[in-house]
Design a protein that fits this description.
The chain is an alpha/beta fold. It has one domain: Ribonuclease Z/Hydroxyacylglutathione hydrolase-like (Metallo-beta-lactamase, Chain A). It contains 9 helices and 12 strands.
Length: 309
């Protein structure tokens, strides 16, 4: 197992009930695949899948400690812990918790996982208030979107010149490149964070992208009778992300919802003997173009509704 060395450069400086939250919504019943068990496995190199059928959680393993990306639904943390153990690892060896974004289906388990592991939580500046407050930014009045509050230990900030957030260096990456880069890709949430991993596999250098999201989903893009925009600057943030990612061409495109990258089909091909079943070159550019078009359509529709058309 490759040695894990994490170097961070900062550029500026009680879980919900597993079955039902305060609003009476049983998310495991509403979205059964979000809570359905899925056998953990090695994706490639020292990158592992330890999430559920519908909500991805990733483990990056190393001799000096592991990194865990995302926490799934509140109340379902034990499934992640058990998946980590099934691969021969220990939750207490997770030293760093990372989060794609502060929405309850991806941040809900972070508080319990932090307590179980003793790890530090690193998160982008724009999502700190939501993580520590336990709310969905812009929908603070919706308890069904709440998550257990969790303290952020290290705040990641973007640098305007090259959009670099944190540099996480691990042995085994491409010579001359850091193994893991964080990049702010805002819009879906104010601090939406993506992770670009460089993996040396069988003498070939591969890039894996764990992308946050670019969907509009429940976000209000403009002020309307339903309330103000989800957060100030959301439209500019989406457009910044589309511009930032236009030249990204990862060898492996992954996301925090498994259907986005075809988890089941890829895993079946891997089990059948295709060791590189998760290589999907070109898939990200197709995805991001679809999301850009969907965003512009949603913006036009919401703007029209706000104007009374």
């Amino acid at each position: 197992m490759r040695k894990l060395l994490i170097l961070l450069t900062l550029l500026v400086a009680a879980p919900l009930n597993a079955q039902e939250d305060d609003a009476g919504i049983d998310w495991a019943a509403e979205q059964p695949h979000w809570a359905a068990p899925f056998e953990p496995f090695n994706i490639i190199g020292n990158l592992y899948y330890v999430g559920t059928e519908g909500l991805a959680v990733y483990l990056i393993a190393g001799e000096d400690g592991h990194a865990l990306i995302d926490g799934g639904l509140p109340g379902h943390e034990q499934l992640i812990i058990d998946n980590i153990a099934a691969l021969g690892f220990d939750i207490k060896d997770v030293k760093y918790l990372l989060n794609t974004h502060a929405h309850f289906d991806h941040s809900g388990g972070l508080a319990a996982l932090k307590e179980a592991s003793g790890a530090e939580l690193w998160a982008s500046e724009g999502d700190v208030s939501a993580l520590e407050g336990g709310f969905y930014l812009g929908s603070e009045d919706k308890p069904e979107y709440a998550a257990p509050p969790v303290k952020v230990d290290r705040v990641l900030r973007d640098r305007a010149s090259d959009f670099g957030g944190a540099v996480i260096s691990m042995t085994g990456g491409e010579p001359g490149k850091p193994f893991l880069l964080t990049a702010l890709t805002p819009g879906h949430s104010r601090g939406c964070t993506s992770f670009r991993l460089f993996i040396d596999d069988d003498r070939e250098h591969l890039e894996a992208l764990i992308f946050c999201s670019a969907t509009v989903a429940a976000n209000r893009l403009v002020a309307s009778d339903e309330g103000p925009a989800q957060y100030e600057g959301i439209v500019d943030d989406y457009r910044l992300t589309f511009e930032k990612t236009r030249d990204w061409t990862p060898d492996i495109f992954l996301a925090n919802h498994s259907e986005v990258f075809g988890l089941k089909d890829a895993r079946e091909r891997q089990v059948a003997g295709n060791r590189r079943a998760f290589l999907n070159r070109g898939a990200f550019q197709k995805y991001i173009l679809e999301k850009k078009n969907a965003f512009e359509k949603a913006l036009a529709e919401q703007s029209g509704a706000a104007d009374g058309e």
